From TrEMBL, chains A, B:
The keyword DNA repair does not apply. Its main location: cytoplasm. Fe cation binds at residues 90, 92, 111, 128. GO terms for cellular component: cytosol. It comes from Gemmobacter aquaticus. It is found in: Cytoplasm. Binds 1 Mn(2+) or Fe(2+) ion per subunit. One of its GO terms (biological process) is negative regulation of DNA-templated transcription. Belongs to the Fur family. The keyword Disulfide bond does not apply. The lineage of its organism: Bacteria, Pseudomonadati, Pseudomonadota, Alphaproteobacteria, Rhodobacterales. Its cofactor is Mn(2+); Fe(2+). Homodimer. This is Ferric uptake regulation protein.
Length: 141, 141
DNA sequence: AAGGGATCTGAGACTCATTCGCAACTTGAG
DNA sequence: CTCAAGTTGCGAATGAGTCTCAGATCCCTT
């Protein structure tokens, strides 16, 4: 069941993170997810695969994976954190205020400007968070 | 004690928001604040001026003032919201990871780029959140 | 200046996401 | 295969923020 050729799994093992059944289930959920699920959703989906997964473990695992750099935590709306796998490079988010859909985007220009601004203020950016909240053009509010 | 010539106060009154002793105390705290205080801090400081102010009222008032556009709510670190008066135009934040200091900045260029990107995706931005987390240049991590 | 109804407020109960404590169970190095 | 260290499930605990409700206050009206 455990695919030793999996790069994420191997990476975790290398970092001394134990790869348990529950963690694999949660990782699997994140891989399949096309949305940015909340802990609650992740728990529900992980249970389908392994009913023994508990809420506490979901939170603990997400925390472990976040520290390992495998998972990213977002807080779009203030109704609980939403998670995504960190694969595929850095990106920011555009949240559709009408549907709640989350669109990922990336702009080197903006990244560069951010670094410039920080430099002007005498800082070096460690990380940043950019979220755009908007509606499809031409929609009545 | 109530200064009728105060623009914020007058504005609220005009919008049908009642100006109470407690609300004035909270408003006063926000005016004096140079940091971006949390609800907890605001409560403590407001109590110095008017001991009758309660936690519930702080939250309710901040919510009322936010809706009125008088106050801005931020969530920098995930340890509770931090507030600031909305006067002085839009700006973004740079958070010093070493000291926790919050530096305000504004860049028309970035704002323009954000709008462009959103437009390309078929969206119009309603509002956005940009936070840079960094350290003073040349500091060892 | 006085009346009075809608709006506010304080206190404490309550919600909800997230974290903890601990005994039992797994993982993985040797 | 063994066993210490790392994990897990459960349920209790936490903490920011919200709600309920009776009493207090604001401020429009007269």
């Amino acid at each position: 069941m455990s695919d030793e050729s999996d790069p994420i799994e191997a990476g975790l093992r290398t970092e001394g993170v134990r790869v348990t059944r529950q963690r694999l289930a949660i990782l699997h959920v994140l891989r399949e997810a096309t949305d940015h699920p909340r802990a609650e959703d992740i728990l529900a989906r992980a249970k389908e695969q392994d009913p023994s997964v508990s809420q506490a473990t979901v939170y603990r695992t997400l925390s472990v994976l976040e520290k390992a750099g495998t998972v990213l935590r977002n807080e779009f709306d203030g109704a609980g954190a939403r998670y995504e796998l960190a694969e595929g490079g850095h990106h920011d988010h555009l949240i559709d205020l009408d549907t709640g859909a989350v669109i990922e985007f990336h702009s080197d220009k903006i990244e560069r400007l951010q670094a410039e601004i920080a430099a002007e203020l005498g800082y070096e950016i460690e990380w940043h968070r950019l979220e755009l909240y908007g509606r499809k053009s031409g929609r009545r509010r």
